[in-house]
Amino acid sequence: MKLWQLKSSLDGFETLGYRDFDRYSKLDELLIQIAPLADQWGFVEVCTIDEGEDSDCPHFWDCPIPVFSEKAVRVLVIF
């Protein structure tokens, strides 16, 4: 049996944030709701806040939202 743990790291990797913080920061409120997010979550533009190495699971600035690269999604979809 294989177990995988994905976590974001601040050690030398890039940090992402909202491109338009004032507009998108209200999306943080969706995280505390019980309802599924899929119906309410749309496309959100992000930008690099802190430069660093590319990562398949970068840290999202000041928010507990997990962010995954397209590569990570393709690999994990089989699980």
Can I get a quick summary?
By secondary structure, the chain is α+β, with helices and mostly antiparallel strands.
Describe the protein in words.
By secondary structure, this protein is an alpha+beta fold. It has one domain (15-76). It is built from two helices and three strands. It has helices at 21-24, 70-76, and strands at 15-18, 46-50, 59-60. It is globular and about 40 Å long. The mean pLDDT is 76.
Secondary structure: number of strands:
3
> How are the strands of the biggest sheet laid out side by side?
2-1-3
The description of the largest β-sheet is: 3 strands, mixed
Percent range for helical residues? Answer: 10-25%
End-to-end gap? 12 Å
Number of helices: 2
Mean pLDDT: 76
Shape: globular
Overall number of domains: 1
If you compute it from the alpha carbons, what radius of gyration comes out, rounded to the nearest whole angstrom?
Answer: 14 Å
Structural class computed from helices and strand pairing: alpha+beta
Percent of residues in β-strands: 5-15%
**SSE pattern, N- to C-terminal:** EHEEH
Low-confidence stretches: none
Q: Keywords, please?
A:
globular; alpha+beta; 2 helices
Helices and strands in order, then pairings?
Layout: E1 15-18, H1 21-24, E2 46-50, E3 59-60, H2 70-76
